[in-house]
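During the no-cost extension, the postdoctoral fellow (Dr. R.K.) reprocessed legacy sequence entries with the updated structure-token encoder. One reprocessed record is reproduced below for audit purposes.
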Amino acid sequence: MILLLWVYSFVGFSPISQDTIPLTEVEVFAPALDRFAQGQKVISWTKKELEDFQGRSLGDILQEQSPIFVRQYGAGMIASPSFRGTSAGHTAVFWNGLPINSPSLGQSDLSILPVSAIDQVDLQFGNAGALLGNEAIGGSVNLGTETDFGKGFRAGISQQIGSFGLFNSNLSGGFSSNNFSSNTKIYREFARNNFPYKDLGQFGTPEVKEDHAQVEQVGIVQDLAWNLNPTNLLKASFWWNKTDRMVQPVMGSQTNDVQEDQALRVVIDYFHFGERSVWNLKTGFVHNELLFNQSENTTSQYFLAGDWDQGISDQWTLKFGARYTLTKGDLSTYQADDNRIELYQSTKFSASEQLSFALNLRQLVYEGNLAPFTPNLGMDWELWSKESQTLQLKASLGKGFKVPTLNDRFWNPGGNPDLLPEESISGEIGLTWNKQGNVNWSQGLTYYKMSVDNWIIWLPKGSFWTPENIKKVNNQGLEYQGKVNGNLKLWKWELITSYSFSQAITKEGIDKNDQSVEKQLPYTPQHQANAKFKVEREAFSAFLSTCYVGERSITADNPRLMPSYQLFNLGLGYDKLQLGKVYIPLGFQVNNLFNTDYQVLYLRAMPRRSYQFNLSILL
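Re-encoded structure tokens follow.
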């Protein structure tokens, strides 16, 4: 059906001229993250900026270009984000506004979210439970695909070939008239991951070659949009992804586990544009299948949501909405359903061009239980403005929550249906300085403080484990984000840097003898930094990037620390090779330039220096 629509869009659709098209309305109507996230830190990457990460996963760009620590279990293996010292389950992940975290695990695996499938990435830091809902305690990852009108026909194919059996292929195509748009991406990514490493699990730490870490991933993304008339827009997106992995064993082990992940995601949006208002009706479906060896786990989620966004005046903007979620789980040890209803409201007040506030409120009900009422108040204030310079203050205070997952409540044996939602309260304050001129500067510094209560932890109870609301964790830290760019004769250059200092301390443990109290959470580095320097001249570009991860403990009582590491990547590109109307961008990358031997997690081998060649053909 999707292929039929694609072919129809190429050869069977006749553009219809129209004087009034709601393109400007669509641009003006930004997502809630842009409109009501006053006081909150947001980092974004556009489609152009993601090009340096083609053939790689979302986990790679987050680790190398943001203050987020990504816990990687090996090359191409599970990768989970940690915002500000929180766990992976405290991160909400969305695709085109649709929540896609696994309802059984409460998190997403970033390694099977390929960059080639998305056009936009937005990271929101800190509590956003009032704005985005469940799980957004540490932060949120918002993925999107673009919709264009009036661009005509376009197509492209790209190929990445690299070390350790890397062979990725991507095909994209689309057509758009003034009233219809179709975009398709098809990809296959393969890596043998037969890299050498020092096996610390064997006597004498011999160098061996990994022989059980092969990964193959295939998928298709289809986006459709119709301008029904000047005031109505219909959008639909479809994403199917399948990943087959040999699960990389820990050093010294000879396990031969295999895992298959398959996901189907569908979302449909209807927009009606009125006088200073937008009505949005959204429905969606997410189906996940996980087959680990012979154990199969399946979950399905159905979403129905609607909201109304109204500009009352130049100063006041209001938004009201509701969402219903039905979850069905069919897992190896249990079957369960879950029903949720949530009501949310957002208000933005622009006192002036320099000062604006946002108040977000949300109430969720799950299986007849009230989740914590969740408010958030944020402010953006341009303190100072002089000629080409501005100084902005951002501040926010709010609550967040996470409802226990299906596994937490229903796993047999051990599930605890009486678990309370995890609750958090946090605040942050930040300053951003911008200066425009021959050299453009943007520098930001943010301080945050957070407390997470009712932290869920699985504990041994007789012959099995069970989850309980035990821990209380306090998080605080500093985040710096900087960007400077300019021109040097014919060269354009840009430097992007970031640094984070994070403390995540257990304040209340399992009992009074718990050795983790007043200790940093395991696998939570206090120090992390990254930088990227890029230069461009006409068709040529080059970049050098680095990321540093500090020491981190292996266990909660901190008796042993893993050493810090720093990695460098180098990339070269040429994008003006042309044969007639065909453009052929070329790229070459070296990852882990200095062949550093490192581990992210204990006894999980990681590849050393690798090479990647990128070739694209664009029409």
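The CA atoms of residues 204 and 211 lie 20 Å apart. Residues 2-11 form the longest helix (10 residues). The remaining legacy entries will be reprocessed before the final report is submitted.
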